Protein backbone atom coordinates (compact mmCIF):
# COMPACT_ATOMS: atom_id res chain seq x y z
CA UNK A 1 0.00 0.00 0.00
CA UNK A 2 1.23 3.55 -0.78
CA UNK A 3 1.84 6.12 1.98
CA UNK A 4 -1.16 8.00 0.66
CA UNK A 5 -3.31 4.81 0.87
CA UNK A 6 -2.15 4.17 4.47
CA UNK A 7 -3.05 7.74 5.45
CA UNK A 8 -6.57 7.41 3.98
CA UNK A 9 -7.05 4.10 5.84
CA UNK A 10 -6.06 5.67 9.21
CA UNK A 11 -8.37 8.61 8.62
CA UNK A 12 -11.25 6.21 7.93
CA UNK A 13 -10.50 4.06 11.02
CA UNK A 14 -10.28 7.13 13.29
CA UNK A 15 -13.44 8.63 11.83
CA UNK A 16 -15.39 5.42 12.39
CA UNK A 17 -14.07 5.12 15.97
CA UNK A 18 -15.09 8.73 16.59
CA UNK A 19 -18.59 8.11 15.27
CA UNK A 20 -19.01 4.99 17.43
CA UNK A 21 -17.87 6.94 20.50
CA UNK A 22 -20.40 9.69 19.77
CA UNK A 23 -23.13 7.07 19.35
CA UNK A 24 -22.25 5.44 22.70
CA UNK A 25 -22.19 8.80 24.50
CA UNK A 26 -25.52 9.77 22.96
CA UNK A 27 -27.13 6.49 23.92
CA UNK A 28 -25.80 6.71 27.49
CA UNK A 29 -27.00 10.26 27.87
CA UNK A 30 -30.42 9.22 26.56
CA UNK A 31 -30.59 6.49 29.14
CA UNK A 32 -29.62 8.91 31.86
CA UNK A 33 -32.27 11.36 30.82
CA UNK A 34 -35.04 8.91 30.51
CA UNK A 35 -35.15 5.50 32.03
CA UNK A 36 -38.35 4.71 30.17
CA UNK A 37 -37.35 3.57 26.70
CA UNK A 38 -40.93 3.45 25.49
CA UNK A 39 -41.37 7.16 26.06
CA UNK A 40 -40.46 9.61 23.32
CA UNK A 41 -37.33 11.74 23.79
CA UNK A 42 -37.22 15.54 23.77
CA UNK A 43 -35.85 15.86 20.29
CA UNK A 44 -38.49 13.57 18.86
CA UNK A 45 -41.41 15.35 20.39
CA UNK A 46 -40.79 19.00 20.98
CA UNK A 47 -38.54 21.71 19.69
CA UNK A 48 -35.58 21.98 22.03
CA UNK A 49 -36.31 25.53 23.19
CA UNK A 50 -39.92 24.67 23.94
CA UNK A 51 -38.75 21.55 25.79
CA UNK A 52 -36.35 23.60 27.89
CA UNK A 53 -39.15 26.02 28.74
CA UNK A 54 -41.48 23.25 29.87
CA UNK A 55 -38.64 21.68 31.80
CA UNK A 56 -37.90 24.90 33.65
CA UNK A 57 -41.57 25.31 34.46
CA UNK A 58 -41.77 21.73 35.70
CA UNK A 59 -38.64 21.97 37.80
CA UNK A 60 -39.97 25.17 39.33
CA UNK A 61 -43.13 23.33 40.33
CA UNK A 62 -41.09 20.53 41.83
CA UNK A 63 -42.59 18.00 39.47
CA UNK A 64 -41.03 15.12 37.67
CA UNK A 65 -38.90 16.17 34.72
CA UNK A 66 -39.83 13.13 32.64
CA UNK A 67 -43.44 14.20 32.53
CA UNK A 68 -42.55 17.40 30.67
CA UNK A 69 -40.91 15.57 27.80
CA UNK A 70 -43.71 13.37 26.68
CA UNK A 71 -46.68 13.68 24.36
CA UNK A 72 -49.43 12.46 26.61
CA UNK A 73 -52.07 10.03 25.43
CA UNK A 74 -53.75 6.83 26.63
CA UNK A 75 -50.88 4.97 24.95
CA UNK A 76 -48.30 6.83 27.03
CA UNK A 77 -50.06 5.74 30.21
CA UNK A 78 -50.23 2.16 29.02
CA UNK A 79 -46.50 2.27 28.22
CA UNK A 80 -45.61 3.64 31.64
CA UNK A 81 -47.60 0.86 33.24
CA UNK A 82 -46.11 -1.84 31.03
CA UNK A 83 -42.50 -0.64 31.23
CA UNK A 84 -42.20 0.97 34.65
CA UNK A 85 -44.87 -0.70 36.72
CA UNK A 86 -45.26 -4.16 35.20
CA UNK A 87 -48.03 -6.30 36.70
CA UNK A 88 -49.33 -3.36 38.71
CA UNK A 89 -53.07 -3.42 39.05
CA UNK A 90 -54.61 0.07 39.05
CA UNK A 91 -57.47 0.51 41.53
CA UNK A 92 -59.35 3.82 41.63
CA UNK A 93 -61.46 4.64 44.70
CA UNK A 94 -63.99 7.48 44.73
CA UNK A 95 -67.33 8.18 46.32
CA UNK A 96 -69.05 9.10 43.05
CA UNK A 97 -69.31 6.31 40.48
CA UNK A 98 -68.64 7.03 36.81
CA UNK A 99 -71.87 5.36 35.65
CA UNK A 100 -75.12 5.44 37.62
CA UNK A 101 -78.02 3.17 36.76
CA UNK A 102 -81.43 4.55 37.70
CA UNK A 103 -84.90 3.12 37.32
CA UNK A 104 -86.92 5.15 34.84
CA UNK A 105 -90.46 4.09 34.04
CA UNK A 106 -90.26 0.41 33.21
CA UNK A 107 -86.63 0.52 32.23
CA UNK A 108 -83.18 1.50 33.41
CA UNK A 109 -81.55 4.82 32.58
CA UNK A 110 -77.78 5.35 32.49
CA UNK A 111 -76.44 8.58 33.94
CA UNK A 112 -72.92 10.00 33.84
CA UNK A 113 -72.75 12.33 36.86
CA UNK A 114 -71.76 16.02 36.71
CA UNK A 115 -68.36 15.70 38.32
CA UNK A 116 -64.95 16.98 37.36
CA UNK A 117 -63.47 14.03 39.17
CA UNK A 118 -65.40 11.57 37.01
CA UNK A 119 -64.58 13.30 33.73
CA UNK A 120 -60.87 13.28 34.63
CA UNK A 121 -60.59 9.75 36.02
CA UNK A 122 -62.78 7.97 33.48
CA UNK A 123 -60.38 8.14 30.50
CA UNK A 124 -57.50 7.17 32.81
CA UNK A 125 -59.23 4.08 34.15
CA UNK A 126 -60.18 3.11 30.60
CA UNK A 127 -56.57 3.48 29.47
CA UNK A 128 -55.28 1.37 32.39
CA UNK A 129 -58.05 -1.28 32.25
CA UNK A 130 -58.28 -0.83 36.00
CA UNK A 131 -60.87 -1.44 38.68
CA UNK A 132 -62.95 1.49 39.94
CA UNK A 133 -64.49 1.14 43.39
CA UNK A 134 -67.33 3.55 44.20
CA UNK A 135 -70.56 3.93 46.11
CA UNK A 136 -73.48 2.40 44.21
CA UNK A 137 -76.04 5.16 44.68
CA UNK A 138 -78.31 4.58 41.65
CA UNK A 139 -81.79 3.16 42.12
CA UNK A 140 -81.06 0.39 39.59
CA UNK A 141 -77.39 -0.14 40.50
CA UNK A 142 -78.03 -3.44 42.29
CA UNK A 143 -79.87 -4.81 39.27
CA UNK A 144 -76.91 -4.33 36.98
CA UNK A 145 -74.06 -5.98 38.92
CA UNK A 146 -72.88 -9.60 38.94
CA UNK A 147 -72.67 -11.80 42.06
CA UNK A 148 -69.46 -9.94 43.08
CA UNK A 149 -71.08 -6.51 42.81
CA UNK A 150 -69.13 -5.79 39.64
CA UNK A 151 -70.24 -4.40 36.31
CA UNK A 152 -68.14 -3.94 33.19
CA UNK A 153 -68.10 -0.38 31.83
CA UNK A 154 -68.38 1.77 29.72
CA UNK A 155 -71.63 0.13 28.67
CA UNK A 156 -71.46 -1.06 25.10
CA UNK A 157 -67.67 -0.92 24.95
CA UNK A 158 -66.37 -2.23 28.28
CA UNK A 159 -62.74 -1.66 29.18
CA UNK A 160 -62.70 -1.67 32.97
CA UNK A 161 -64.50 -3.02 36.02
CA UNK A 162 -66.76 -0.90 38.23
CA UNK A 163 -67.07 -2.43 41.70
CA UNK A 164 -70.00 -1.01 43.60
CA UNK A 165 -70.05 -0.59 47.38
CA UNK A 166 -73.42 -0.47 49.11
CA UNK A 167 -74.10 1.94 51.95
CA UNK A 168 -77.03 2.06 54.33
CA UNK A 169 -79.15 5.21 54.49
CA UNK A 170 -77.52 6.11 57.82
CA UNK A 171 -74.01 5.54 56.51
CA UNK A 172 -74.68 7.73 53.48
CA UNK A 173 -76.25 10.43 55.62
CA UNK A 174 -73.40 10.53 58.15
CA UNK A 175 -70.37 9.94 55.92
CA UNK A 176 -71.33 11.73 52.67
CA UNK A 177 -73.95 14.37 53.49
CA UNK A 178 -72.76 14.92 57.05
CA UNK A 179 -69.01 14.71 57.57
CA UNK A 180 -67.84 15.11 53.95
CA UNK A 181 -70.30 17.74 52.75
CA UNK A 182 -71.38 19.65 55.85
CA UNK A 183 -67.98 19.38 57.55
CA UNK A 184 -64.99 19.06 55.22
CA UNK A 185 -66.46 20.76 52.13
CA UNK A 186 -67.17 24.15 53.81
CA UNK A 187 -63.98 23.80 55.88
CA UNK A 188 -61.82 23.56 52.76
CA UNK A 189 -63.57 26.22 50.64
CA UNK A 190 -63.51 29.91 51.44
CA UNK A 191 -67.21 30.51 50.81
CA UNK A 192 -68.18 31.66 54.31
CA UNK A 193 -70.47 28.72 55.00
CA UNK A 194 -69.94 27.45 58.51
CA UNK A 195 -68.74 23.83 58.74
CA UNK A 196 -70.85 21.52 60.90
CA UNK A 197 -69.07 18.72 62.77
CA UNK A 198 -71.05 15.98 64.52
CA UNK A 199 -69.54 13.00 66.34
CA UNK A 200 -72.11 10.67 64.77
CA UNK A 201 -71.08 11.82 61.26
CA UNK A 202 -67.44 11.21 62.10
CA UNK A 203 -68.24 7.66 63.25
CA UNK A 204 -70.09 6.99 59.98
CA UNK A 205 -67.19 8.48 58.00
CA UNK A 206 -64.72 6.19 59.74
CA UNK A 207 -66.95 3.13 59.27
CA UNK A 208 -67.45 3.83 55.55
CA UNK A 209 -63.73 4.41 55.01
CA UNK A 210 -63.19 1.00 56.65
CA UNK A 211 -65.77 -0.57 54.35
CA UNK A 212 -63.95 0.81 51.30
CA UNK A 213 -60.60 -0.44 52.69
CA UNK A 214 -62.10 -3.95 52.94
CA UNK A 215 -63.24 -3.65 49.34
CA UNK A 216 -59.82 -2.51 48.11
CA UNK A 217 -58.23 -5.53 49.81
CA UNK A 218 -60.87 -7.84 48.31
CA UNK A 219 -60.32 -6.45 44.79
CA UNK A 220 -56.49 -6.44 44.93
CA UNK A 221 -55.11 -9.27 42.80
CA UNK A 222 -51.71 -9.13 44.50
CA UNK A 223 -49.86 -7.42 47.36
CA UNK A 224 -48.67 -4.49 45.30
CA UNK A 225 -51.53 -2.67 43.61
CA UNK A 226 -51.43 1.02 42.76
CA UNK A 227 -54.40 2.53 44.54
CA UNK A 228 -55.61 5.96 43.42
CA UNK A 229 -57.65 7.33 46.33
CA UNK A 230 -59.86 10.25 45.34
CA UNK A 231 -60.89 13.21 47.40
CA UNK A 232 -62.10 14.35 50.80
CA UNK A 233 -64.52 11.48 51.25
CA UNK A 234 -61.59 9.18 52.04
CA UNK A 235 -59.09 10.93 54.30
CA UNK A 236 -58.78 7.86 56.54
CA UNK A 237 -58.58 5.30 53.77
CA UNK A 238 -54.86 5.59 52.82
CA UNK A 239 -53.69 4.50 56.29
CA UNK A 240 -56.32 1.76 56.48
CA UNK A 241 -55.07 0.35 53.15
CA UNK A 242 -51.42 0.75 54.17
CA UNK A 243 -52.04 -1.40 57.27
CA UNK A 244 -53.55 -4.20 55.19
CA UNK A 245 -51.51 -3.96 51.97
CA UNK A 246 -48.13 -2.66 53.14
CA UNK A 247 -46.55 -2.91 49.71
CA UNK A 248 -49.22 -1.00 47.84
CA UNK A 249 -48.45 2.33 46.21
CA UNK A 250 -51.16 4.67 47.44
CA UNK A 251 -51.62 7.90 45.53
CA UNK A 252 -54.20 10.17 47.14
CA UNK A 253 -55.56 13.14 45.24
CA UNK A 254 -57.38 15.90 47.12
CA UNK A 255 -59.66 17.51 44.51
CA UNK A 256 -60.64 20.54 46.56
CA UNK A 257 -58.55 23.31 48.19
CA UNK A 258 -56.74 22.70 51.49
CA UNK A 259 -57.27 25.54 53.98
CA UNK A 260 -54.57 27.34 55.93
CA UNK A 261 -53.65 25.73 59.24
CA UNK A 262 -55.64 28.25 61.31
CA UNK A 263 -58.86 27.40 59.48
CA UNK A 264 -57.98 23.71 59.46
CA UNK A 265 -57.63 23.76 63.25
CA UNK A 266 -61.44 24.11 63.49
CA UNK A 267 -61.84 20.42 62.67
CA UNK A 268 -62.20 18.36 65.87
CA UNK A 269 -60.54 15.34 64.21
CA UNK A 270 -57.73 17.27 62.56
CA UNK A 271 -54.91 14.98 63.74
CA UNK A 272 -56.76 11.82 62.71
CA UNK A 273 -57.36 13.15 59.22
CA UNK A 274 -53.71 14.08 58.74
CA UNK A 275 -52.57 10.69 60.08
CA UNK A 276 -54.96 8.95 57.72
CA UNK A 277 -53.72 10.87 54.69
CA UNK A 278 -50.08 10.28 55.61
CA UNK A 279 -50.64 6.58 54.98
CA UNK A 280 -50.28 7.59 51.29
CA UNK A 281 -47.10 7.27 49.26
CA UNK A 282 -47.99 10.47 47.40
CA UNK A 283 -50.57 13.16 48.18
CA UNK A 284 -51.52 15.41 45.28
CA UNK A 285 -53.18 18.80 45.15
CA UNK A 286 -54.11 21.02 42.20
CA UNK A 287 -51.85 23.89 43.25
CA UNK A 288 -48.59 24.31 45.13
CA UNK A 289 -50.40 26.73 47.42
CA UNK A 290 -52.76 24.00 48.66
CA UNK A 291 -49.88 21.52 48.97
CA UNK A 292 -48.08 24.09 51.15
CA UNK A 293 -51.18 24.60 53.29
CA UNK A 294 -51.33 20.85 53.88
CA UNK A 295 -47.67 20.71 54.88
CA UNK A 296 -48.20 23.63 57.27
CA UNK A 297 -51.15 21.81 58.88
CA UNK A 298 -49.00 18.71 59.40
CA UNK A 299 -46.22 20.86 60.81
CA UNK A 300 -48.61 22.42 63.29
CA UNK A 301 -50.53 19.37 64.47
CA UNK A 302 -48.30 16.29 64.12
CA UNK A 303 -44.86 15.32 65.38
CA UNK A 304 -43.29 14.82 61.98
CA UNK A 305 -40.18 15.61 60.00
CA UNK A 306 -40.72 17.83 56.99
CA UNK A 307 -38.12 17.98 54.22
CA UNK A 308 -39.31 21.04 52.32
CA UNK A 309 -36.66 20.77 49.61
CA UNK A 310 -37.87 17.24 48.79
CA UNK A 311 -41.57 18.01 49.36
CA UNK A 312 -41.56 15.01 51.71
CA UNK A 313 -43.09 14.42 55.13
CA UNK A 314 -41.84 11.64 57.41
CA UNK A 315 -44.34 10.51 59.98
CA UNK A 316 -44.38 7.34 62.05
CA UNK A 317 -41.41 5.87 60.20
CA UNK A 318 -42.80 6.41 56.75
CA UNK A 319 -42.41 9.17 54.19
CA UNK A 320 -45.02 10.73 51.93
CA UNK A 321 -44.43 12.98 48.94
CA UNK A 322 -46.66 16.07 48.82
CA UNK A 323 -46.88 17.50 45.31
CA UNK A 324 -48.95 19.71 43.03
CA UNK A 325 -50.37 17.90 40.00
CA UNK A 326 -52.80 20.21 38.16
CA UNK A 327 -55.71 18.09 36.97
CA UNK A 328 -56.99 18.39 33.43
CA UNK A 329 -59.28 16.89 30.80
CA UNK A 330 -59.08 14.42 27.97
CA UNK A 331 -57.57 15.98 24.81
CA UNK A 332 -58.97 15.79 22.25
CA UNK A 333 -62.37 15.28 23.87
CA UNK A 334 -63.73 12.09 22.31
CA UNK A 335 -67.27 13.37 22.15
CA UNK A 336 -66.31 16.40 20.03
CA UNK A 337 -66.30 14.14 17.00
CA UNK A 338 -69.99 13.41 17.62
CA UNK A 339 -71.02 17.07 17.69
CA UNK A 340 -72.00 19.25 14.73
CA UNK A 341 -70.04 22.39 13.86
CA UNK A 342 -70.28 25.54 15.97
CA UNK A 343 -72.89 27.25 13.74
CA UNK A 344 -75.15 24.23 13.97
CA UNK A 345 -74.74 24.11 17.78
CA UNK A 346 -75.60 27.82 18.01
CA UNK A 347 -78.69 27.35 15.87
CA UNK A 348 -79.86 24.35 17.91
CA UNK A 349 -79.46 26.11 21.24
CA UNK A 350 -81.13 29.32 20.09
CA UNK A 351 -83.98 27.20 18.84
CA UNK A 352 -84.26 25.32 22.16
CA UNK A 353 -84.44 28.53 24.22
CA UNK A 354 -86.23 30.76 21.72
CA UNK A 355 -83.33 33.22 21.31
CA UNK A 356 -83.04 35.38 18.23
CA UNK A 357 -79.74 35.13 16.28
CA UNK A 358 -78.54 38.63 17.28
CA UNK A 359 -78.78 37.93 21.04
CA UNK A 360 -75.40 37.26 22.64
CA UNK A 361 -75.36 34.09 24.73
CA UNK A 362 -73.43 33.86 27.97
CA UNK A 363 -73.39 30.53 29.85
CA UNK A 364 -72.55 29.06 33.25
CA UNK A 365 -72.37 25.29 33.76
CA UNK A 366 -71.91 23.59 37.14
CA UNK A 367 -73.43 21.75 40.04
CA UNK A 368 -75.79 23.94 42.06
CA UNK A 369 -73.22 24.65 44.76
CA UNK A 370 -72.60 27.71 46.93
CA UNK A 371 -68.87 27.65 46.07
CA UNK A 372 -69.57 28.32 42.39
CA UNK A 373 -70.55 31.99 42.73
CA UNK A 374 -73.85 31.74 40.81
CA UNK A 375 -75.57 34.52 42.78
CA UNK A 376 -72.52 36.77 42.34
CA UNK A 377 -72.77 36.21 38.62
CA UNK A 378 -76.42 37.29 38.64
CA UNK A 379 -75.40 40.39 40.54
CA UNK A 380 -72.82 41.27 37.87
CA UNK A 381 -75.47 40.83 35.17
CA UNK A 382 -77.88 43.07 37.08
CA UNK A 383 -75.14 45.68 37.33
CA UNK A 384 -74.44 45.45 33.59
CA UNK A 385 -78.11 45.83 32.61
CA UNK A 386 -78.41 48.79 34.97
CA UNK A 387 -75.27 50.60 33.85
CA UNK A 388 -75.49 49.67 30.19
CA UNK A 389 -79.16 49.30 29.29
CA UNK A 390 -78.21 48.90 25.62
CA UNK A 391 -77.66 45.21 26.42
CA UNK A 392 -81.25 44.66 27.55
CA UNK A 393 -82.81 42.45 24.89
CA UNK A 394 -79.36 41.78 23.38
CA UNK A 395 -77.87 39.45 25.98
CA UNK A 396 -79.17 36.25 27.58
CA UNK A 397 -77.51 34.29 30.34
CA UNK A 398 -78.08 30.53 30.45
CA UNK A 399 -77.34 28.91 33.82
CA UNK A 400 -77.12 25.12 33.75
CA UNK A 401 -77.18 24.00 37.39
CA UNK A 402 -77.03 20.25 37.98
CA UNK A 403 -78.89 19.31 41.17
CA UNK A 404 -76.44 18.43 43.92
CA UNK A 405 -76.60 17.47 47.62
CA UNK A 406 -80.14 18.84 47.50
CA UNK A 407 -81.26 17.60 50.92
CA UNK A 408 -78.74 19.77 52.78
CA UNK A 409 -80.06 23.11 54.12
CA UNK A 410 -77.28 25.22 52.52
CA UNK A 411 -78.06 23.74 49.09
CA UNK A 412 -81.85 24.09 49.46
CA UNK A 413 -81.38 27.70 50.39
CA UNK A 414 -79.09 28.33 47.41
CA UNK A 415 -81.58 26.69 45.07
CA UNK A 416 -84.37 28.98 46.29
CA UNK A 417 -82.22 32.11 46.24
CA UNK A 418 -81.02 31.46 42.69
CA UNK A 419 -84.57 31.06 41.43
CA UNK A 420 -85.74 34.12 43.35
CA UNK A 421 -82.90 36.30 42.06
CA UNK A 422 -83.28 35.11 38.45
CA UNK A 423 -87.01 35.89 38.64
CA UNK A 424 -86.32 39.36 40.02
CA UNK A 425 -83.88 40.15 37.19
CA UNK A 426 -86.24 38.75 34.58
CA UNK A 427 -89.11 40.86 35.92
CA UNK A 428 -86.98 43.97 35.93
CA UNK A 429 -85.26 43.65 32.55
CA UNK A 430 -87.24 41.01 30.66
CA UNK A 431 -90.11 41.51 28.22
CA UNK A 432 -92.51 39.47 26.10
CA UNK A 433 -90.42 36.69 24.57
CA UNK A 434 -87.17 37.81 26.28
CA UNK A 435 -85.78 36.44 29.54
CA UNK A 436 -82.33 37.79 30.46
CA UNK A 437 -81.68 34.81 32.76
CA UNK A 438 -82.60 31.27 31.79
CA UNK A 439 -82.07 28.98 34.75
CA UNK A 440 -82.15 25.24 34.03
CA UNK A 441 -81.65 23.29 37.25
CA UNK A 442 -81.42 19.89 35.55
CA UNK A 443 -78.77 17.30 34.83
CA UNK A 444 -77.26 17.53 31.33
CA UNK A 445 -75.18 14.88 29.58
CA UNK A 446 -71.56 15.70 28.65
CA UNK A 447 -72.62 15.85 25.02
CA UNK A 448 -75.33 18.41 25.78
CA UNK A 449 -72.87 20.40 27.89
CA UNK A 450 -70.33 20.51 25.05
CA UNK A 451 -73.05 21.63 22.66
CA UNK A 452 -73.78 24.52 25.05
CA UNK A 453 -70.09 25.47 25.23
CA UNK A 454 -69.93 25.52 21.44
CA UNK A 455 -73.03 27.66 21.16
CA UNK A 456 -71.87 30.30 23.67
CA UNK A 457 -70.29 33.70 23.10
CA UNK A 458 -69.08 33.87 26.70
CA UNK A 459 -68.56 31.28 29.45
CA UNK A 460 -68.56 32.48 33.07
CA UNK A 461 -66.59 30.41 35.59
CA UNK A 462 -66.78 32.63 38.65
CA UNK A 463 -66.28 30.25 41.58
CA UNK A 464 -65.76 31.82 44.99
CA UNK A 465 -63.18 29.09 45.55
CA UNK A 466 -62.31 26.00 43.53
CA UNK A 467 -59.49 23.45 43.51
CA UNK A 468 -59.15 23.57 39.72
CA UNK A 469 -62.51 23.85 37.89
CA UNK A 470 -62.61 21.73 34.78
CA UNK A 471 -65.53 23.61 33.19
CA UNK A 472 -63.00 26.30 32.24
CA UNK A 473 -60.81 23.72 30.49
CA UNK A 474 -63.79 21.99 28.87
CA UNK A 475 -65.01 25.29 27.38
CA UNK A 476 -61.58 25.87 25.87
CA UNK A 477 -61.44 22.34 24.49
CA UNK A 478 -64.93 22.65 22.95
CA UNK A 479 -63.93 25.76 20.95
CA UNK A 480 -62.04 24.36 17.99
CA UNK A 481 -63.24 27.47 16.12
CA UNK A 482 -60.95 29.50 18.47
CA UNK A 483 -63.84 31.82 19.35
CA UNK A 484 -65.63 32.57 22.60
CA UNK A 485 -64.50 34.42 25.74
CA UNK A 486 -63.80 32.85 29.12
CA UNK A 487 -64.41 34.86 32.30
CA UNK A 488 -62.51 33.07 35.03
CA UNK A 489 -62.36 33.57 38.78
CA UNK A 490 -58.97 34.32 40.24
CA UNK A 491 -59.93 31.91 43.06
CA UNK A 492 -60.18 28.86 40.78
CA UNK A 493 -57.00 26.81 40.34
CA UNK A 494 -57.54 27.01 36.55
CA UNK A 495 -56.67 30.73 36.62
CA UNK A 496 -53.05 29.73 37.30
CA UNK A 497 -52.93 28.04 33.89
CA UNK A 498 -55.47 29.78 31.64
CA UNK A 499 -53.77 33.16 31.77
CA UNK A 500 -55.46 34.56 28.65
CA UNK A 501 -58.95 34.34 30.17
CA UNK A 502 -60.52 37.53 31.53
CA UNK A 503 -59.58 36.97 35.18
CA UNK A 504 -62.18 38.34 37.61
CA UNK A 505 -62.85 38.67 41.32
CA UNK A 506 -66.33 37.20 41.84
CA UNK A 507 -66.88 39.33 44.94
CA UNK A 508 -66.55 42.50 42.86
CA UNK A 509 -69.78 42.84 40.85
CA UNK A 510 -68.71 46.12 39.25
CA UNK A 511 -65.47 44.60 38.01
CA UNK A 512 -67.28 41.52 36.69
CA UNK A 513 -69.81 43.65 34.82
CA UNK A 514 -66.92 45.55 33.20
CA UNK A 515 -65.32 42.23 32.24
CA UNK A 516 -68.65 41.21 30.71
CA UNK A 517 -68.68 44.43 28.70
CA UNK A 518 -65.14 43.69 27.52
CA UNK A 519 -66.16 40.16 26.53
CA UNK A 520 -69.30 41.29 24.73
CA UNK A 521 -67.37 43.79 22.62
CA UNK A 522 -64.23 41.73 22.01
CA UNK A 523 -63.23 41.39 18.35
CA UNK A 524 -63.02 37.90 16.80
CA UNK A 525 -59.25 38.47 16.35
CA UNK A 526 -58.70 39.12 20.04
CA UNK A 527 -60.86 36.13 20.94
CA UNK A 528 -58.64 34.00 18.72
CA UNK A 529 -55.45 35.46 20.21
CA UNK A 530 -56.65 34.55 23.68
CA UNK A 531 -58.24 31.20 22.87
CA UNK A 532 -55.29 29.79 20.92
CA UNK A 533 -52.71 29.76 23.77
CA UNK A 534 -55.32 28.47 26.20
CA UNK A 535 -56.08 25.57 23.88
CA UNK A 536 -52.36 24.88 23.56
CA UNK A 537 -52.01 24.89 27.33
CA UNK A 538 -54.82 22.35 27.83
CA UNK A 539 -53.62 20.22 24.92
CA UNK A 540 -50.08 20.01 26.34
CA UNK A 541 -51.27 19.51 29.91
CA UNK A 542 -54.06 17.05 29.40
CA UNK A 543 -55.39 14.55 31.93
CA UNK A 544 -53.01 11.84 30.72
CA UNK A 545 -50.13 14.03 31.78
CA UNK A 546 -51.78 14.57 35.18
CA UNK A 547 -52.10 10.85 35.80
CA UNK A 548 -48.83 10.03 34.06
CA UNK A 549 -46.82 12.39 36.28
CA UNK A 550 -48.18 10.64 39.35
CA UNK A 551 -47.56 7.20 37.89
CA UNK A 552 -43.97 8.13 36.97
CA UNK A 553 -43.40 9.34 40.53
CA UNK A 554 -45.00 6.13 41.80
CA UNK A 555 -42.69 4.08 39.58
CA UNK A 556 -39.72 5.90 41.03
CA UNK A 557 -40.92 5.18 44.56
CA UNK A 558 -41.36 1.53 43.78
CA UNK A 559 -37.91 1.25 42.20
CA UNK A 560 -36.37 3.05 45.15
CA UNK A 561 -38.22 0.81 47.60
CA UNK A 562 -37.10 -2.31 45.73
CA UNK A 563 -33.52 -1.03 45.66
CA UNK A 564 -33.57 -0.30 49.38
CA UNK A 565 -34.81 -3.80 50.04
CA UNK A 566 -32.06 -5.38 47.93
CA UNK A 567 -29.27 -3.21 49.35
CA UNK A 568 -30.69 -3.33 52.87
CA UNK A 569 -30.48 0.46 53.16
CA UNK A 570 -33.97 0.79 54.55
CA UNK A 571 -34.32 0.67 58.31
CA UNK A 572 -38.03 0.74 57.95
CA UNK A 573 -40.35 -2.18 58.36
CA UNK A 574 -41.46 -3.87 55.14
CA UNK A 575 -44.73 -2.02 55.49
CA UNK A 576 -42.96 1.16 54.48
CA UNK A 577 -40.83 -0.30 51.74
CA UNK A 578 -42.59 1.52 48.94
CA UNK A 579 -42.66 4.93 50.50
CA UNK A 580 -39.90 7.21 49.41
CA UNK A 581 -37.08 8.04 51.79
CA UNK A 582 -36.26 11.72 51.65
CA UNK A 583 -33.09 12.77 49.85
CA UNK A 584 -31.79 14.15 53.14
CA UNK A 585 -32.21 10.77 54.81
CA UNK A 586 -30.54 9.02 51.90
CA UNK A 587 -27.58 11.36 51.94
CA UNK A 588 -27.14 10.88 55.67
CA UNK A 589 -27.29 7.10 55.27
CA UNK A 590 -24.79 7.16 52.43
CA UNK A 591 -22.39 9.29 54.50
CA UNK A 592 -22.56 7.08 57.60
O1 LIG B 1 -64.45 17.77 42.74
C1 LIG B 1 -65.13 17.86 43.91
C2 LIG B 1 -66.34 16.95 43.98
O2 LIG B 1 -66.82 16.92 45.25
C3 LIG B 1 -66.03 15.55 43.58
O3 LIG B 1 -65.50 14.83 44.61
C4 LIG B 1 -67.37 15.09 43.18
O4 LIG B 1 -67.36 14.01 42.32
C5 LIG B 1 -67.96 16.31 42.53
O5 LIG B 1 -67.37 17.39 43.16
C6 LIG B 1 -69.46 16.27 42.53
O6 LIG B 1 -69.99 16.23 43.81
P1 LIG B 1 -70.91 15.06 44.30
O7 LIG B 1 -70.22 13.79 43.98
O8 LIG B 1 -71.08 15.31 45.75
O9 LIG B 1 -72.19 15.20 43.53
From TrEMBL:
It comes from the Bacteria. InterPro entries: Glyco_trans_20. Pfam families: Glyco_transf_20 (PF00982). One of its GO terms (molecular function) is alpha,alpha-trehalose-phosphate synthase (UDP-forming) activity. GO terms for biological process: trehalose biosynthetic process. Belongs to the glycosyltransferase 20 family. This is Trehalose-6-phosphate synthase. The lineage of its organism: Bacteria, Pseudomonadati, Pseudomonadota, Alphaproteobacteria, Hyphomicrobiales.
Amino acid sequence: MTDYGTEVLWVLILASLGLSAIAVVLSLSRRRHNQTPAIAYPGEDVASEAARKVLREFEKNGQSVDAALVTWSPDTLRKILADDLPDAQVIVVSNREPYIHNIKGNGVELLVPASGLVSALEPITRACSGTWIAYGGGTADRLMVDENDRVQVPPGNPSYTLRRVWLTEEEHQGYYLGFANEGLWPLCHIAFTRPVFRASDWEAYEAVNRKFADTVVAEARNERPIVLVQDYHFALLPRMIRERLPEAIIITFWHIPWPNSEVYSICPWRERILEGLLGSSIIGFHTQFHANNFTESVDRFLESRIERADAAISYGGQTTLVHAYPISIEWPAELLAKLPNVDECRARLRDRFGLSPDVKLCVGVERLDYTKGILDRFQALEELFTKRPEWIGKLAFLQIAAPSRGTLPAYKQLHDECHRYAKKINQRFGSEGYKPIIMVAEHHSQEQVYEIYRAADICMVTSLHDGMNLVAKEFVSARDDEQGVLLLSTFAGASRELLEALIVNPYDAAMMSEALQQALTMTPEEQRERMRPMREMVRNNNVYRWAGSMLLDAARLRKRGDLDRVTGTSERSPSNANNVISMFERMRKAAS
